[in-house]
Structure formats: structure tokens, C-alpha cells
Amino acid sequence: QAVEHLASFLKERRASEVKLYDLSRCDMSQAVSDAFCYSKLVLATTTYNAGIFPPMHTFLHHLTQRDFQQRTIGLIENGSWFPFAAKTMRDLLSNSKQLTFTNTTVTLRSAMTAENLTQLKALADELCNEYQ
């Protein structure tokens, strides 16, 4: 739901193209290929068994093994008790060169809140800012 809201906010701000991938259901090779076609990428996942959701871990592994670099990355994490998916994703990307992380990281605690909607709008603003 958060990702769909973000996509809507990006489209409202006239983002040139927005693609969504559910890594547990999509063709992983297509998602990896597309990640290299764009200058900005938003990663959204849950904290899962003291790590991140396995398909996201696999996706990040594919990116780092293929020298993913020179991109802007936004992060959305979800976790009931102790969300730390954003930190884990940053750590997994730590050897990638010239990545810029957005100032806004969206943290959900199981369900969307009004505060999360505000954070998602801020993330959309930040991602679209250079085009305005």
C-alpha cells in the first residue's frame, strides 16, 4: 500500500516514469535489468527474521554483483517491533560506488499512518525535486 501511494505521489509530481515490481512475484532478471535503466530507485521491504525479505536480499545481491552505482536510492522499511530493513539495505549496498540515499526514509510499523503519508509525500518531493 505504501509503494502504491508513493507511485501516485510521484505521478502527481510528473515523474517521467514509475515502475513497480513485487520481487516475490516478478521476473527477477527484468527487475534487475530495469534498475540499471533508471537514475533513481526506491527499495521497500520488511524486516524479516533479523534481516530483510529474501527476494529483496536476492535483488540487492544481483545489483551489487553487477557493479550497481551512480544512483539515487530511496528506502521504505516496515517492521512491527524493531524495523531495521533500511539499515540492512544500506549495508548491503555499502560497496556500491557513488550511491546517494535520500534524506527521507519511510518507516512503517505494520500499518500505514497519516505520518507515513506525509513521509511518502516528502520522499516523492525529494525524488522529483531536481526536475522542478
Helix count from the secondary structure assignment: 5
Kindly state the number of beta strands: 4
Q: Based on Cα principal axes, name the global outline.
A: globular
CA-based gyration radius? 14 Å
Provide the helix percentage: 40-55%
The whole-number mean of residue pLDDT values reads 94
Oligomeric state of the chains?
single chain
End-to-end span in angstroms? Answer: 26 Å
Largest sheet: 4 strands, mixed
The succession of helices and strands, N to C, reads HHEEHEHEH
Structural class: alpha/beta
**Regions with little confidence, pLDDT below 50 for 5+ residues:** none
Q: Report the sheet-strand fraction.
A: 15-25%
What's the arrangement of strands in the largest beta sheet? 2-1-3-4
How would you describe what is shown here?
The protein is α/β, with parallel strands linked by helices and 132 residues long. It is 41% helix and 20% strand. The chain contains five helices and four strands, in the order H-H-E-E-H-E-H-E-H. The protein has helices at residues 2-12, 28-35, 54-65, 85-92, 114-128, and strands at 40-48, 51-52, 72-78, 100-108. A four-stranded mixed sheet has the order 2-1-3-4. A hairpin with a 2-residue loop joins strand 1 and strand 2. The longest helix has 15 residues, at 114-128. The chain is globular, with a radius of gyration of 14 Å. The two termini are 26 Å apart. The mean pLDDT is 94.
